[in-house]
Each structure stands twice: as C-alpha cells, then as structure tokens.
Design brief:
The protein is mainly α. It folds into 2 domains: about 210 residues, Cation efflux protein transmembrane domain (Alpha-lytic protease prodomain-like, Up-down Bundle); about 100 residues, Alpha-Beta Plaits, CATH 3.30.70. The chain is built from 9 helices and 5 strands; from the N terminus they run αααααααββαβββα. About 5% of the residues have low confidence.
Length: about 325
C-alpha cells in the first residue's frame, strides 16, 4: 500500500471517530444529568478525552507521512510512535483513574449513599457500549490495514471507553437492584484490562523506535522470496529493522563470481524492486552481492570450506 493511501485511510478513520465521540459525549452528559447518574457524567468526561487523544493521532500521522528532508533523510515515520507512546500514557492514566475511583468508593463507603439513577442513564450506558465497541473494531481494522501503532492505541482508547461504560452500566443496574458496590468492583477489573493494553502499546511503540528486528516469519518470507530470483545462488543474510510502521531490509546475496559488474548490479536491482513490490511495508532494501563459488562460502567473515560445513550453514539460514 502506498504511503499517501495509508495516510488517507488513517486520517479518515480518525475524523470519523472524532465526530462520533463528540456526539456521544454530548449524549452522555445530557443522560447523566437528566438520569441522575454520576457514573454516566464521568463516562462522558472519558469520551471527551478520546476526542483529544484522536487529535494527537492525526498530528502524529500527518508528521509521520512527511517526505524525507535534509534533517530527516530516512523519513519521519517514528513520529507516529511518539504519538502512540503519548496515547499509551493517557490510556494508562485513564485506567489508573478508573481503578482509583473504584477503590476509594469501596474504602470510604460512598457507594452506599449514591443517588439512584434511572432508566435513561441505563439506556445511555448501553448505547455507549455498542457505539464505542463498533468504533474499536472500525479503528482496529484501519490500524491493521495501515500497520499504524497510533491507530492501534486509539482503538484501545475506544475500547477502554466501552469498558468504562460497562462499569457504568453495572453500577447503574447494581444501584437500581440495591447492590451499588458492583460498580466499584467492575471499575477495578476494567482498570486492569486497560493497564494491560496500555503497557502492550507502549512496548510495541518503543520496539519500533529502537530498531527491533521483524518477527521470524517475516524474515523467513523475505529470505525465501530473495532466494527465488534468477541469478541468486545463495542468500547469505537478511537483516531487518522496524522504523515506525515501516521496515528496512539489508540483504546479502551470493552470485556467480564470473559475472561482470553490470550483470551483478542488475540482479541486485531486480531483488531490490521485487522485495519492495511484494512487501508493501518495506520502505527500502539494501542488497549487497558476494562472489559465489562451489567449494567455499563466506559466513560472518569466516570461510567455510568443507561440504559438511556448507550444508550446515545453508540449513541454518533456511
């Protein structure tokens, strides 16, 4: 997928969720006041924070999509990771806030004296759960399609709001049935789920900023694809590094040592273009050509001469 298409999908998704969140926030505030539910008013504030978090996503995606310049010759993709880290921190804080509120209400016993909400607040909680879960899947689908860490973080922000609404619904129904403590218990459980998601997003974003290699399956697919090109006698090594939501690849291939420079260059260029076409997330491939002979191979600057060593090495790189 081309970079401009990735940006368009991500921005469209973010704008749609901003509009839905704004409408949902207003609806929750009205239902909370008219339905006499502090839980729903708190839930409305949570939804309002989602608008702010999605704005951060848009800013991060727009900066990440900028072309390379003199000061950033490899591009700006890592700025999206910065946005994802900020969202992970916000998500973590949201989870802590929900859990803290539940614990405090249990400790001070304030849940016992809370005013009873009505059916309007309960209906608002149900609507919120349905809408926010739908927003999660909508955003998650776009995040998977574009491999956007910021969108993944925003998707989990939507789910945290849905889980918050579940807590509100449990609290509302519990209060109406004479068991208001259920609201606090649900809040603590929801807190743990949100914290787990925030930590996962944070770790993923940090990995993308520290040149972490791709998963073994991707590297294996790259190696097999490169080995399939005509003229490639052997794949000596394939190294990858994540750069934001894109991948850089450095491949060493072995070609017949009798080839002239122009022929070897043509093979390397064919491999380069083929990898970038087959693997859309690969931003750039560097291909180095080593001389290939039947009686020896080079491995990590050491010459392997015996046929047994050669077979062991070739089996290893597979």
């Amino acid at each position: 997928m081309k970079e401009n298409n990735i940006e368009k999908i991500a921005i469209k998704t973010a704008i749609v969720t901003i509009v839905l969140n704004a409408v949902l926030t207003a609806f929750k505030f009205i239902a909370g006041f008219l339905g006499n539910s502090l839980a729903m008013i708190s839930d409305a504030i949570h939804s309002a924070s989602d608008v702010f978090s999605t704005v951060i996503v848009i800013i991060g995606i727009k900066i990440a999509a900028k072309a390379a310049d003199k000061n950033h010759e490899f591009g700006h993709e890592r700025y999206e990771c910065v946005a994802a880290i900020l969202l992970a921190v916000l998500l973590f804080a949201t989870g802590c806030g929900i859990g803290y509120s539940g614990i405090i209400k249990i400790v001070d016993g304030s849940y016992k004296t809370a005013e009873l909400p009505d059916y309007l607040a309960m209906s608002a909680a149900i609507v919120s759960i349905v809408v926010k879960e739908a927003m999660f899947w909508y955003t998650w689908a776009a995040a998977k399609k574009t491999n956007s860490g910021a969108l993944k973080a925003d998707a989990w922000h939507h789910r945290s709001d849905a889980l918050s609404s579940v807590g509100s619904l449990i609290g509302i129904v519990g209060a109406m049935c004479g068991v208001p403590v259920l609201d606090c218990v649900a809040a603590i459980a929801i807190c743990l789920l949100i914290l787990k998601a925030a930590i996962s997003i944070f770790i993923d974003s940090v990995n993308k900023m520290t040149d972490k290699a791709c998963d073994p399956e991707t590297e294996r697919a790259l190696t097999e694809f490169i080995a399939s090109f005509e003229g490639v006698k052997r794949v000596d090594s394939v190294m990858t590094r994540l750069f934001g939501n894109r991948i850089y690849v450095i491949a060493e291939i072995a070609c017949d040592e009798k080839l002239i420079l122009g022929e070897a260059h043509t093979i390397a260029e064919t491999v380069h273009d083929g990898v970038e076409e087959r693997f859309p997330l690969v931003k750039h491939v560097t291909v180095h050509v080593n001389p290939y002979t039947e009686d020896k191979i080079d491995c990590d600057n050491e010459t392997v001469k015996t046929e047994e060593d050669k077979k062991d090495y070739e089996e290893e790189i597979k």
